[in-house]
Amino acid sequence: MRYFALIFCLCIVYTAKAQYALNGDASQESNGCYLLTQAQNAQLGSLWSEDQIDLAQPFQLNFVIALGSNDDNGADGIVFVLQNSGLNSLGTGGQFIGYDSSIAPSFGIEFDTYYNPATGQLNSDPVNDHLAFLRDGDTDHASLNNLAGPVDMSNSGGNTEDGLDHIVRFDWDPATQTMDAYFDCELRLSLNYDILNNIFAGVNDVWWGFTSSTGGYNNLHQLKFDQCFLSVDGPHTICQGESVTINALSSFNNPSLLESFSWQPDTGLDDANSASPEASPTVTTTYELIYTDACGNINTDYSITVNVEAISDASFTLLDHCAGAANAASDIATAGGTFSFNPPVADGASIDPATGSISDGVAGTTYTVEYSLGGNCPVSTTETVLVSANANASFDYDDFCPDVEGEPSNMASPGGTFSFATPPSDGAVIDPATGFISQPQSGSTYTVVYEIVGSCAGSASVEVNVFVIEDASFEFEDFCIGEANGPTDIVTPGGSFTILPAPTDGALIDAVTGVISNEQLNSSYNVSYIIGEDCPAVASILVSPIDCADPVEPVDPVDPVEPVEPEPSGPVAIALFPNAFSPNGDGVNDSFGFISNQNITSYDLQIFDRWGKLLYSSTDSNQGWEGNHKGETMSMGVYVYYLRYQVSEGEIQEKKGNVTLIR
Ligand SMILES: [Ca+2]
Ligand SMILES: [Ca+2]
Ligand SMILES: [Ca+2]
Ligand SMILES: [Ca+2]
Question: Helix count (H) and strand count (E) of the chain?
């Protein structure tokens, strides 16, 4: 309670813990203020400090008193007393204000609010509320015990039973033997008197305190130490970045006596001179209140601590990732938080609250993920995460014939790798880069997998069938003209018969049965049998009708592999040779070409497959086609030739037709 500090001597400090002896009707209120009397008639009370004060030392005492709010009918006042009659001292009520001759020796400073005139009442009071220095419990101003005064209590001479708080001050200087009394900061009465020796006979330690009373009229008489009207709130706790109002609370009740407030340090305060500044310190700070009353008395007993709690770092990292890929937050600055979608999503995605891992994220969707930390200072941060689609690895792979290499097409994404889902045991091989399947087996089925690797990998698979090439072989005996004929030993039925090249002599063949009709003598027919749709197979047999009516030496059926010696003569400038050939390396009919008995000056031979694809061309009449195309052996079947040639200086001639490749 340094508010009541002794300016000249710091030997006495009254604190909230100071002990006071209460007598009569004196009591302590719930707010800590002291009630000397109730606002009732015939009250009498006294309050004495249990610590004595030394008159050999200077002192300055400040108090707040309240004299009630009844004026005309208000009585009687308060007396500040120095005495050595003890802690139980209690005088007489009414006009004696609790201070009578039983309290002696003593020195009293009277704050009298009731006019007791001389006549019949022995007090010789002035009319106004007044102040006087008295001794030995004598309140009669006409007495020699009236040491000084009376004077108007208030400097204005006005009423002091005004319901307001008033600051009183008593200064004692033993060196000059001067006692000064102040009311509301104004010096009202001063006395030069040897109180120590003249009153207390040199006994320097005396009791001090207050007396008060009411009589036929009354007032509420109060004594207020600072702790009963001054307080602060707190301590407070804020989070970093927040603010709080800190409050110095004063119930001091006198608008004309202005208090002032200031705080130290002023760091983080919006107004360090406000009773209730806004505090936003960045670290825990204790603000000391410097309370100054209207008379300049300073109290520094109060402080408010604002605790600043750190806000945790809620940062984290959540990387974009591929749909279905493992993912979880990293770089989590502060563990123990909770992950969630914010805003929530309804697309089926879910998030692990502990790890931030997203499950079932929809490709192409950007999610906003929030990481929230609880505690006294909750905080959260958000990150956006893109769930990327996996690579499109789709492709096509058409079924294919075993005599060609299969190949994929329409790859949605290039750069992937091909493989068999299950490595086949039939010897087929797949090129990882191109997807070409070599050494495929007729009738096999392969599952080809295409995989795109990288940040968002993808894969797809296609089932590929290798078509079956049927066996087109059959037999066809030469036959007598006009008699029954037809193929036999057809290994694979269901094919189609034709004569290649188409006969020009009117002969016909039944495509289903293979029976030849309208055959002509001396003709030979190259009967071909074609079976299969996806990978057609062809076999051919040269059939020659025989005139059985005029038997002739039967001629051996032409074996395609037997040499047929051309005998170009006469107008024949060039002749097909042979119309079927068997490039099996046996030296017989191993190639197909033309021969001539003329001087061929220009020659251009082209061979096509049945679908018109150019397989071979040559301008060298000595070169024949050996049934190959780009190093590969062509399968058995019928092929088309187209020859342009020139003899000597003659016109360019053309020949075209079919040739059967036999293996
Ligand atoms: Ca009065
Ligand atoms: Ca009086
Ligand atoms: Ca008086
Ligand atoms: Ca009055």
Answer: 1, 51
